[in-house]
Input
Amino acid sequence: MNSTPQAPVTAIARLQALPGREAEVRAQALALVAPTRAEAGNLSYRPYEDPVAPGAWVVLEEWADDASWQAHLASPHLAAALARTAALLAEPPVVRVFTQ
Output
């Protein structure tokens, strides 16, 4: 049996809150930490708010492999959060995915 090791996945998401919705974006970003960290294959999930640009966020995520990243994208808690983004964000999230 020939098994190829899966490469870790790092995702970086950039979010920009609509003016006046900064607190809601903060609450949503922080609420995703616990359920995401509990997912199989999650190595880290860290949301950061820009201290000089309130409402601007970067979320750094590390996953054991692409399968765990794809499972996260289909998770109910992420789907619920994404359903609210149109009302909270100035633009769609910008997500970049990197592998080793």
Summary: The CA atoms of residues 47 and 59 lie 4 Å apart. Residues 76-88 form the longest helix (13 residues). The radius of gyration is 14 Å.
